[in-house]
Every structure is written in structure tokens, then in C-alpha cells.
Amino acid sequence: xxxxxxxxxxxxxxxxxxxxxxxxxxxxxxxxxxxxxxxxxxxxxxxxxxxxxxxxxxxxxxxxxxxxxxxxxxxxxxxxxxxxxxxxxxxxxxxxxxxxxxxxxxxxxxxxxxxxxxxxxxxxxxxxxxxxxxxxxxxxxxxxxxxxxxxxxxxx
Length: 156
Known about the structure:
Layout: H1 2-7, H2 16-30, H3 37-46, H4 51-54, H5 56-65, H6 72-101, H7 106-125, H8 132-148
């Protein structure tokens, strides 16, 4: 599950219910709970989702549809790549519509297209940018923790 959650987000799934189920699986994993038929179905019911998503039969069908979990990274990459293609198609349609409508200048249309393509690329490469303040605070916390440790310094 950890491998898939590093590659995918719920937005990557074509069908919304698969993204909802994926989020529930990630939640269970993050809480240290097993991700199986019973725990997943219970989590989905806790979220008060419609029976067509949270029923035992539906969850069982989904689990049975996956041949093996050994190839999870491969499967996750397929879903991710298809999500990128869908985003590109959607962006292309939006740009084409803006061109046909001619409500904006060419420059504005180009800027919007560039922003949308950059956003797709940014998500594919590794997610959103992190504010420098957050990076600095994390580094300071790590340094403070290390300075409080007693013992011999190694690696010098």
C-alpha cells in the first residue's frame, strides 16, 4: 500500500469511487491497521458511503479483480500514466475551446495553457512545491533533535 500511495492520489482514478476506496485504504495503512476485506468494508461504512461503494460484495469484487499485489508498483504506474493522459486531454480541450471562443487574447490563452501544463508536469514529477519556511523549520527541528543526542559523532 505504501508503494501505491507514493505514486497515486485519489484524483488519479478515472472512477471517483475507486479514489474514495483508495483513500480509505491509505488511511487504514497510515493508522497501522491491516488492509483487508473486513477492515476496508468497515472503514467505507464508517464514512457513510452509498452501499454501491461500501457493500461487502463490491469490495470483494474489487479485491478479486486484482491478480496479485506483487505487481502493485506496476499497476500504480499504469493508473498514474493514464491520469496524466486524461489531464492532458482535458487541458487540450479547454485550450481548444478558449481558442474557438476568442474571448481572451492569444497571450492570455497561452499563459493559461502553460500554467495548466506546468501543473500537470509538477504533479507528475513529485507533487507541489513546499514553502521554504516549512523546509527550514523541518531542518531546524532535525538539527535540534540531533544536538540533544548523547554519544559519539560518526561519519566524519
